Model the fold of this input.
Amino acid sequence: EADDGDQQQTTGADGQAGYGAGPRQPYTGNKDSRPATKGLTYIPESRVSTFSGHSSEVFICAWNPTASLLASGSGDSTARLWGIPDGPCGGNPPVKEVVLKHFNKNKENKQEKSKDVTTLDWNGEGTLLATGSYDGQARIWNRDGKLRNTLNKHKGPIFSLKWNKKGDFLLSGSVDRTAIIWDAKTGEVKQQFEHHRAPTLDVDWKNNNTFA
Done:
């Protein structure tokens, strides 16, 4: 959020999420011996904010479209909501962190991890966050981190989730070779598409009714 750069988000295998504002000019080399590369934009560490909390690699992150919130999904069976403070990027600023636990209950009624949170997406109003995980379940949370709905139909890990622009339908793609349209309010399956011969790794809406 620095005045002279563009805001960027990053994910890492070190379990950290970060964001920064990069200089507009290309990096051309300096005393730290980094090779000069034409057109390369170098972001110094002093202009990067790092948020630590995940205990495993971060797979995905997404900015809330209406609030200063960053959502991240990790292999530690959690998603996290980071409240980003105003001001320039840099260092380790204090943030409001909300942990969204993706745990299931086993036969002994004990909580167990549901593995990786592989995908997430905010609705257009920024009021709801959808997450998909390796257990084949999609979950819908409000902006405060409260679980609103759990969507069960896929028989394999979910790798893509997308809201339509209106926010009434959620589209998911899974390793089970299917895509599902969900009624976001009721959690009802509106339609399941079984036309793929291999895992459905990505999905996207063209408008409120047409998708790929």
